[in-house]
Amino acid sequence: MQRLASLFRPQKPIDASVLEEEAALVEAIHRRFVLRGTLSLGALTLLTGCDISNKEAVQSTLRKISGWNDLVQSALFDPKKLAKTYTPAEVRKPPRFNAFYPIDEVKPVDIGSWRLEIGGRVKDKRPLDAASFAGLPEQEIIIRHVCVEGWDYIGQWSGVNFRLFLEKIGADLDAKYIGFRCADGYSASIDMASALHPQTILATKYAGEPITAPFGAPLRLRTAIKLGYKNPKWITALEVTNTYPGGYWEDRGYNWFAGI
Amino acid sequence: MTGTQGTSTKLARLHPLPLRIMHWLNAIAILVMIGSGWRIYNNDPIFGFIEFPITFTFGGDPDITYRHNGDAGFSNALLWHFAFMWLLVANGLAYVIYGVATGRFRRMLLPVTPRDVVHTIRETLRLHLAHDDITMYNAVQKLMYIGVLCVLVLVVISGVTIWKPVQFSALAALFGGFQGARLVHFCCMGLITAFLVVHVMLAILVPRTIAAMITGGPPNPRLDGRPSLPAE
Fold it and tell me: H/E element holding A179?
């Protein structure tokens, strides 16, 4: 049957390539609809076990609450309170390995060419080599390492007190964050109050011996007041900043403050 | 007094509206806490022989979550756990204040005597258990509710200890250290889960109790002639 000519009907067929060009937009509109539908069914889906964890609105809400938890933790944190310390007899040797890959994938850092880059709100930004750490005063702490997964062990760490180190390089101690970058692509950041805690050190030794490759040689952070993932290993760069630096696990949804 | 005052006014229901709201909020909080807790536990099981099937855990499908987050759902479980802990605690506190202030705890849950408990168990075994009047809890019910309330308090305290073993070092010492607190937290979860199974099973056996927790249920003669709540 011949179609009636109409002023309102296109004379030529519609160019379908438009749909392809705007596929992303069409997809987004579709997604938004699905999202809205899911949210309205929120309570029900919770109960029926359909998991809504990865919906964007749910994710952003959960992460906002995690941000609120950062504030609560920061208020609970007593900068003067010391974590319990232990005796050398209780120390686990070697320490327990953990990273975002298995121990056989560790790539040892070449100590000779290794440098610690220093950036941000710091007066003395000259990179430091391993020898310059050997000359710094050493503090030893025998503390519990608590992993977010639930395991723990007692470790004996020594190295320069972090507050002392920050003062030495002329860091702005009123800045908010210290960010770390590591040789294996890991990154982490901590708040200034925790950085200045007496039991936060830049460790170079474990149980009196230089730290071995899998556990962060030549330099790692050890703090008695944070979960394990806030203790970056194989540190290659450090930045004192007021801009939130994030971190490897934090970017994947782990809580940022992570104080214990 | 038997609460028959005010012929024209309606009697207070078995479960007043605030209580019903708190009950269902608590149900949601508990389910999310257990589901996400199981996912968290699986990452480092306390007992090698206990691991929870991933379908019963909460935190997102591992493959999808990995594509979104670069993490197979452990971080999601942590996010849920540390978000819904606030609901659990805030709602729990409101419930305790409500229960004490209105006298509901005293009216509904006390007294419980060993004699009554033995009597109830004996009646149950003889299949003589009466539940015609759902406004009155038997001794075993009272004991279960009091027990699960205590366990809920303990699960929160042990949870806070796991969260902050250094800041609350005195609590950690009380539990015999960080791992002690973890074990107590896990055992509390087990008891709450066991309670839930029995609680839901019995509710299904006497569906009137479920209806009552939604609509308010029959007038409660134990309300001591309190002014009635507005019609719901």
Answer: strand A177-182
Chain B: nearest CA to A197, how far in angstroms?
A: 13
The ranges of chain B with pLDDT < 50 are 1-9, 224-225, 227-232
A47-94, pLDDT tens digit by residue? 444 578 888 888 899 999 999 999 999 999 999 999 999 999 999 999
Phi-psi region of A200 (alpha: psi -120 to 50; beta: other; left: phi over 0): beta
Q: Which of A44, A74, A104 is the last residue of a domain?
A: A74
Cβ-contact A181, A157 below 8 angstroms: no
pLDDT of residue B4: 43
**Domain extent for A120:** 78-252
Long-range residue pairs from B190-199, CB within 8 A, at least 24 positions apart, any chain: B191/B147, B191/B148, B191/B151, B192/B30, B192/B34, B192/B148, B192/B151, B192/B152, B192/B155, B193/B34, B195/B144, B195/B147, B195/B148, B195/B151, B196/B30, B198/B144, B199/B144
Tokens of B2: 């038997």
Structural domain range at position B86: 17-223
Q: Hey, what amino acid is at A108?
A: P
CATH number of the domain encompassing residue A191: 3.90.420.10
Q: How many whole angstroms separate alpha carbon A34 and alpha carbon A181?
A: 39
Cβ atoms of residues B161 and B171 within 8 Å: yes
| Chain B residues touching chain A at CB-CB below 8 Å | 28, 31-32, 40-41, 43-44, 46, 55-56, 58-61, 64-65, 68-71, 73-76, 78-80, 82-83, 86, 163-167, 169, 178-179, 182
Query: Which positions of chain A have pLDDT values less than 50?
Result: 1, 38, 40-49
- The residue in chain A having the minimum alpha-carbon distance to the alpha carbon of residue B35 is A49
pLDDT for the residue numbered A9: 56
